[in-house]
Design goal:
Layout lengths: L1 H19 L4 H7 L4 H9 L7 H10 L4 H16 L1 H15 L28 E4 L2 H16 L3 E7 L5 H9 L5 E11 L11 H14 L3 E9 L13 E4 L4 E4 L6 E4 L2 H15 L6 E5 L5 H12 L5 E4 L11 H7 L7 H20 L3 E5 L5 H6 L15 H17 L2 E3 L12 E5 L2 E7 L5 E6 L2 H12 L9 H16 L2
Parallel strand pairs: 2-3, 3-4, 9-10, 10-11
Antiparallel strand pairs: 1-7, 2-5, 5-6, 6-7, 8-14, 9-12, 12-13, 13-14
Helix pairs in contact: 1-5, 2-3, 4-5, 5-6, 8-9, 11-13, 15-17
Amino acid sequence: MKGLFIMSVFSDMLKVYVHEKDVKVGALAQYCETERSTVYKFINGKREPQSAGLVEKIASFMKLTPLETYRLREAWKMARMGEDTYYIRKSIEHFLTDFPNRSSQPSRNFIPHDNVEKNFPPAHSCLLLNSRQAVDSSVHQILLSEASKSNGRIALFLQPDYPFLLHLLSTIQPAGDLQIDHIFSLNHTVRFTETHDLYEFYYLRNLFPIYMNSLNYHIHCFYTNEVSNFQNLSALPYMILTSEYAITCSSDYQMGILYQDPDILQALWNLFRSHQDLCQSVFQTFPLAADDLPSLFQFVSNSRSSADVILYIQPEACILPFLRKDLLKAIFNYELPMADSVISMADSLFLDNIKRIKDGKFIIYFTEYGMTRFLQEGLFEEIPSTFYHPLTIEQRIRILREIAQCCHDGAYRILKKPLNHLSENLRMCLCGNTCSLTYQTNSGEHMCFSIMEPFMLQIFQDFLTNMDPDTYYSPKEAEQIINRMIKHLEAK
């Protein structure tokens, strides 16, 4: 029944357009160079077009608007791959394209003007928060009060679906060291939001602005069979804790209780820690620091030990495989510690990349637009610019010629819509049992966010391994695009 329903989405849409546009089925079949009976099967849901090109021809003959064409094409994709797979892949697309770029606005140092204690009635250790506004106001006051301390601590026991709190954390600038621990649940099964976002990616999109703010923020997860274990409780399942205050609130943030009693606060902290002990580490962050490159190379080497195929997706082409030792020596910043040792380790890693490319075990998706900075300035974002000097035009041309050959062989693939304008701040590598996202924070730090959660690894693997050929250029087209870049540089 599910398959029939999905098929009817496409066939019903096609049927509506045929009726609205007063399309003659015979003429449509002739234009598409197919049998009239086949087109009737498309309309009646008994068969589907075998290619996106045929769907485009159908749309062209019916003179559909760009929006109508998009809707017909998306309905066809859903019919071919199934509803869950379609929405999972859409969720990944949204995550990649909506990944936050560096903010030009600096974080602000919030110092609360109001004393939280004055909100409590005399001789009371708790306060009823009977509206969303009251909850938001109390959250605002206690978090900013904690951020003003030299050693603040915040604990969150809630799903990443509270925009007010998440936005506050993404813009706050602590006065000292502020440690934030966040517990939330992940699903055992595939679950979507009301807008068809996979919950895991909906959560990550909400949380990444906090990482961009360079806070000392740590995620702890546990699994549940429900969309949220909290949302099935009629009590006050969410907790927000600081060193002085606690808030318990409903999962819709419409009511809560604010506490200041030390015994209650300690009991809630103990409860939080007991749950934290049961959680799993499915995400990890670490800086890409110039003085700790050996550790980074060791991490990469360890993750590759279990990898069959390495998959990349990022704005620009991966330059690293082509940094031969002579070129690496020419551009490396020798003022960095352990320069000779780092060059040796890097050379070994890059040689492994070349071998994998030749063996068909290294595939990268990138964009034509993303190559702009490399072409203009000789810089590439995979390595912080403090590690090397910009490449000369001759060095850039040398790299591009190798990339052109990789495009010819199909290892390097240039993306079309909808991923042809990836976030400039995202580089994702799927390698073995780890998916690594490297990005730059608002303050300019280079960070790596490592995903070890099995389900997310599986769907990333499926997404990149089974990328729709219609979403990237053919090897011949990609090679031609790179050759045009070479000619442009040669003309300088």
